[in-house]
Write a structure and sequence with these properties.
The complex is a heterodimer of chains A (114) and B (108). Chain A is mostly beta strands. Chain A is 0% helix and 56% strand. The chains are: A mainly beta (114), B mainly beta (108).
């Protein structure tokens, strides 16, 4: 298996639930990213990990909690989300975060908050 | 702050040429990416410009003018499969800042 894999593809949850999104990359990259994509809005960078260390937290609410246990895996833990958090969450990876290496994206998790 | 503008929608005929413009005003700049995103799919990398000028890759070309804060993506010999959203993104340090995307519809 190659590329960037995200699970689940779809998730419906209530505002009081706790769930996690998973991302796995098989490209040998050392930087990983979480983005939020809402309808008609630009992709918003949420978190950046480089060599398993968080290097960017783009003013994201604490109800989103990332975890990067190794360079191949990235999680986004969700807790007490709001309806406006419904969106497509995309994971990406690249060779090095700082250089102009293209980011490779997964297909995303479509999240709906009831 | 970051301000990246591109048109919302464009329509063109199969076999024609379409040019998607992107203007940017950002606090830092290392280079500019173009991505293609089909509905329900992941964005895929098309091009990366660092220096001024035109870079050609088959039917797709990308141009950059750093002094003008301007880029365009040129799609030639349009095919139906080129119907997609095209995303302009400014690279600065660790970050990519995206425009809202241009939806291109190719008609027969």
């Amino acid at each position: 298996e190659t590329g960037v894999t995200q699970t689940p593809r779809h998730l419906v949850m209530g505002m009081t639930n706790k769930k996690s999104l998973k991302c796995e990359q098989h490209l040998g990259h050392n930087a990983m990213y979480w983005y939020k994509q809402s309808a008609k809005k630009p992709l918003e960078l949420m978190f950046v990990y480089s060599l398993e260390e968080r290097v960017e937290n783009n003013s994201v609410p604490s109800r989103f909690s990332p975890e990067c246990p190794n360079s191949s895996h990235l999680f986004l833990h969700l807790h007490t989300l709001q309806p406006e958090d419904s969106a497509l969450y995309l994971c990406a990876s690249s060779q090095v975060a700082r250089d102009g290496q293209p980011q490779h994206f997964g297909d995303g998790t479509r999240l709906s908050i009831l | 702050g970051q301000n990246i503008d591109q048109p919302t929608e464009m329509t063109a005929t199969e076999g024609a040429i379409v040019q998607i413009n992107c203007t940017y005003q950002t606090s830092g700049f290392n280079g500019l990416f173009w991505y293609q995103q089909h509905a329900g799919e992941a964005p895929t990398f098309l091009s990366y410009n660092v220096l001024d000028g035109l870079e050609e890759k088959g039917r797709f070309s990308s141009f950059l003018s750093r002094s003008k804060g301007y880029s365009y993506l040129l799609l030639k010999e349009l095919q139906m499969k080129d119907s997609a959203s095209y995303l302009c993104a400014v690279h600065n340090d660790y970050k990519l800042s995206f425009g809202a995307g241009t939806t291109v519809t190719v008609r027969a």
